[in-house]
Amino acid sequence: MKNLLIIGAGQYGMVAKEIAESMKCFEKIDFVDDVYASAVGKICDIDKLIHEYDSAVVAIGNTELRLNLIKGLCEIGSAGGFTPRRAAGPTDGFYMR
Predict the structure, then answer these.
(1) Average pLDDT value for residue range 74-79
(2) Is the separation of the CB atoms in 2 and 24 below 8 Å?
(3) Which of 17, 31, 42, 88 is exposed most, by the fewest CB atoms within 10 A?
(4) 24 CB-near residues (< 8 Å, 6+ apart)
């Protein structure tokens, strides 16, 4: 089983979690978010937390912020073994090891 980190715990994040749970391939699903207390950390903590996860998805509605986070994951990914996988479009950010 794999672990999934969802970046953003708002509406998009909740939908991402529902989809991930329906896939039944993740043992652990967590969020990072700057607002929601249920998150395991804030967005600035991604680089500290990402080593615990096999996959990550950016689930944030703000296009500019989402693209910046995707670029950041690409930078982390080059060192951490993540590769981007496009789900539906060029601004979607799903990353797997």
Answers:
(1) 66
(2) no
(3) 88
(4) none
